Amino acid sequence: MCLGIPGKVVEIYERDGLPMGKVDFGGGVIREACLAYVPELQIGDYTLIHVGFAISRVDEEEAQKTLAMLAEMDMLAGELPDQPGDGED
Hints:
Layout: E1 5-15, E2 18-24, E3 30-34, E4 46-50, E5 53-58, H1 60-72, H2 76-79
Antiparallel strand pairs: 1-2, 1-4, 2-3, 4-5
């Protein structure tokens, strides 16, 4: 199953000409993601991450609800790859 997981952008930088960021998914889970598809993201924004790529900006309240539901279902850890591109379909 593929999921888009919401997270909070906590750092933005450039790598090899691409906008990248660190995204906090809560519970100490922080991963790197490519922000090229959503270049308007800023630190503090919430975004939906799919296989290491930000695919949209999301509302903080909805992001928190989704993260809480995933934590309840104990699904969050298994769906977050260590690096972009890990855990693809």
